[in-house]
Amino acid sequence: MPTLLSVNNYFYPRGGAEVVFLEHNAIFKKAGWNVACFSMNHPNNPPSEWSRYFIDEIEFGGNYTLLQKMARVPKVIYSMESRRKISQLLNDIPVDICHMHNIYHHISPSVLGVLHDRKIPTVLTLHDLKIACPEYHMLSSGRICERCRGGNRVNVIINKCIKDSYTLSGLIFVEDLLHRILKSYSNKVDKFIVPSRFYLEKFSEWGWDREKFAYIPNFIDTSLFQPGFNPGKEFVYFGRLSKEKGISTLIQAAAKANVRLKIIGSGPDEHALKQLSSTLESKVTFAGYMTGKLLHETIRSSRAVVLPSEWYENAPLSVLESYALGKPVIASSIGGIPELVLEGETGTIFNPGDVDQLAAALDFYHNQPDRFPAKQGRTARTWVEDEFSREKYLRNICSLYRELGVSCQQRHLP
Known about the structure:
CATH superfamily of the largest domain: Glycogen Phosphorylase B
Shape: globular
Structural class: alpha/beta
CATH class of the largest domain: Alpha Beta
Distance between the termini: 18 Å
Helix content: 25-40%
Number of domains: 3
Number of strands: 14
Strand order of the largest sheet: 2-1-3-4-7-8
CATH topology of the largest domain: Rossmann fold
Number of helices: 14
Order of helices and strands: EHEHHEHEEEHHEHEEHEHEHEHEEHHH
């Protein structure tokens, strides 16, 4: 039985990357693998037989004293604790391959050297743009920024890219500089996985060797999503409420089209967005944070889901989840999003930040007979079942593992 070492900062479903990490583990367990995990201790973690190897919690924004914050700085840059504890795990458990997800700033890339020295094939799924852009998103002051393309990373400090802070930006600049000097990613990761073709091309544009990248789309377990094809009258957005998500554009478009919109989620822009909605006298409802059955039911009762992002999104699971629930998606044509929308079949796209185009799309869907969004919802459900299934993901990953010399037998998933 082969053993997979699966690594991620968080061990609970905190965001999209964590969902992929946890589902990846579940798939390989069902396929007959032994799955060992390396992560960070956190109060939200479920019990795990591997937790004795986990590193101590680092929660940015936590209520730490000045001395505690200073003690965490070296860990952010290069964690000796992570090296020590992953070495303990590898001493106890023979590992055939390591698959990593998000490791920045908590676990840190310090572990890559340990795996490389032990000749353990290592794969890193890129859920963001961190290995190219220290800010993760290629954003500066809420706008798309590619100033560091070509290697001049000092722009991170000059433009205070990290939370508008010279101190934090300087810290991340040092972290990025060290790992470029050590070639932590370029020499010690055998293969990078990107869930969107857009990210593959973007990394290639920034000088990365495209031969080290493999395009493998995200997946979704559709058995966990009961679709609803009868469209309601209300449009829905669900996700973080922050500037780059384009929700201000969405509220303006909804007001212009005079349609009902429900915004689900929380975030730093919540107050400003509520003020904007009130000023425009729009038909917008803020439903707050929502998850599980209630979230699914709210989406099922909508007419369509809207994703108005204004940054280089990778391959948002929210699109696949909407499809699994039987809903078309109206989305901005930026990043990897257009790859997930079959124009006129599973939804439509519009230019990011274009209020008029989005208003026209909302008006169109609002005035179409119910059979129109219902048909698109059925097409979307079928497409996500066929193209973004657990089985197809397992086949793709096993093919990659075999390229790296690891035996990976394809089994039918229960």
